[in-house]
Design a protein that fits this description.
It is built from two helices and 18 strands. The protein is mostly beta strands. Strands 12, 13, 14, 15 and 16 form a five-stranded antiparallel sheet that branches. Strands 6-7-8-9 form a four-stranded antiparallel sheet, with no helix packed on it. A hairpin with a 2-residue loop joins strand 10 and strand 11. The protein starts with a strand and ends with a strand. 28% of the residues are buried. About 3% of the residues have low confidence.
Length: 191
C-alpha cells in the first residue's frame, strides 16, 4: 500500500489536506481511497510517514480541538486496510505547537487575502520510534522553515530541538526530513 496527502485547495480555497491510500494490484494501483473517520477531518490532515517496519503511520491533523487529545501529531497502527489505536503524541510536542505564533500568508492569486497559518512540511520517525523529525515555520531561528527533532523519553515526547545552522540554512526553506532505514542519515530539502 501507499499512503499520501492530497490538498483540496482548488476546490475550497483553503488548505485542506486529507490522507489517501492505494493498494498495489498486479502491475497497477487501485483507485485512491480517502481514509475515513478519525484520521481525516474538515481541517488540514496529512504530512505523514510510515515506520520502516510498516506497522505504524505518523501523521498530523489540525482538526478542531486537536490540542485536547495530544495533537497535532498522531500515531496509528496499520492493521490491513484500517488504522487502529490512534493516539496523539502529546507531551512537549503539543505544547510547542500551542505556544507558538501564527505566520501571515497570502494566496498568489489573491494577495489581499491574508491568512494566519502554522506551516508544517515533512515528518520522519526513527526505526525505534524514539525520535521524531519535522519541519515548520513556527519558532524558526535560522531559515524560513526549520527542521526540529523531539525525543521520546520515558514515554513522553520532549521539547523539540532546532537542528541548528548546519542543517537549517539561514534564510532558506529547510523541509521534508527523512531518515535512512538505519537512522544514520537525515535527508532533507533546502533551497
Amino acid at each position: 500500500e501507499i499512503y499520501y496527502g492530497y490538498d483540496h485547495f482548488e476546490q475550497c480555497y483553503r488548505y485542506d489536506y486529507d490522507i489517501y491510500y492505494s493498494t498495489k494490484i498486479g502491475g497497477g494501483w487501485s483507485e485512491p481511497k480517502r481514509l475515513g473517520g478519525y484520521v481525516n477531518s474538515d481541517a488540514d490532515d496529512g504530512v505523514l510517514c510510515i515506520t520502516p517496519d510498516g506497522n505504524a503511520l505518523y501523521f498530523v491533523s489540525f482538526k478542531e480541538n486537536y490540542n485536547l487529545d495530544g495533537g497535532p501529531f498522531y500515531r496509528a497502527e496499520i492493521r490491513g486496510d484500517s488504522l487502529v489505536n490512534i493516539q496523539g503524541l502529546g507531551g512537549k510536542l503539543t505544547e510547542f505547537w500551542n505556544n507558538s505564533d501564527y505566520n501571515a500568508y497570502s494566496f498568489p492569486d489573491r494577495p489581499e487575502e491574508e491568512v494566519m497559518l502554522k506551516y508544517l512540511s515533512g515528518v520522519a520517525v526513527s526505526s525505534d520510534e524514539q525520535e521524531l523529525y519535522f519541519a515548520t515555520d513556527i519558532n524558526r531561528k535560522y531559515g524560513k522553515i526549520d527542521i526540529w527533532v523531539s525525543y521520546k523519553v520515558d514515554g513522553i515526547w520532549t521539547e523539540p530541538i532546532n537542528l541548528g545552522p548546519n542543517i537549517n540554512a539561514p534564510g532558506a526553506i529547510n523541509c521534508e526530513p527523512r531518515l535512512s532505514l538505519d537512522d544514520d542519515v537525515l535527508f532533507f530539502s533546502s533551497n
